[in-house]
Give the backbone structure.
Amino acid sequence: MSIDSVFSSLLHRGRLHRAASRNRELAREIQTLEKIDGFGRKWSAANYVGGYSSYSSLDKLHLTSPHFADLQQALEPHLRHFVRKLNWQLLGGKVQMTTCWVNAMGLGTYHPMHTHPGSVISGVYYVQVPRASSPLKIEDPRLSLMMAAPPRRASAPKSERNYLLLAPKPGEFVLFESWMRHEVPPQREQSRRLSVSFNYEWR
């Protein structure tokens, strides 16, 4: 007799080299983007209250800014490692970054639970993280099918919890498959939480 662990999901976390200098440049550029991006500010006022996101306006920053292109290059070896671990057969295609945008979360700003349709890997890189910043919250993809199951113990291993909370740290990144539902609860700090989000597609 045996009990096997099946259908596991992978999550790749790490820290990039030269994080301090990279984050200073990125933070300055995020502040500049917020000043010049009128459409993004208008969209954020309605959809990202208390903060700013270039999601609706400037979402290909890796193609237009040397600082974000540098971030893409720094992430590339980690992306390739993650793709190998996922055991994907790419059939001659490539997994490449297609969108890249910034998020500046103010007090009370939040990301509701969502996925990234059309992409295969999504991720976030943390630029500035105030002390009590909100975590990245990832949902067990089986949760909606558990129906009458009792709750998990608080001491359950990460692979068996209903939600996983990942504390953000400056200079660190998280990569995950784009079908994973995730959110960021309301920001608890007045100081802004700065991050860069991105998607990769298989083409």
Notes: The mean pLDDT is 96. The two ends are 43 Å apart (CA to CA). Residues 66-85 form the longest helix (20 residues). The beta strands are 11-15, 52-53, 95-105, 111-114, 121-128, 136-139, 163-166, 172-177, 182-184, 193-202.
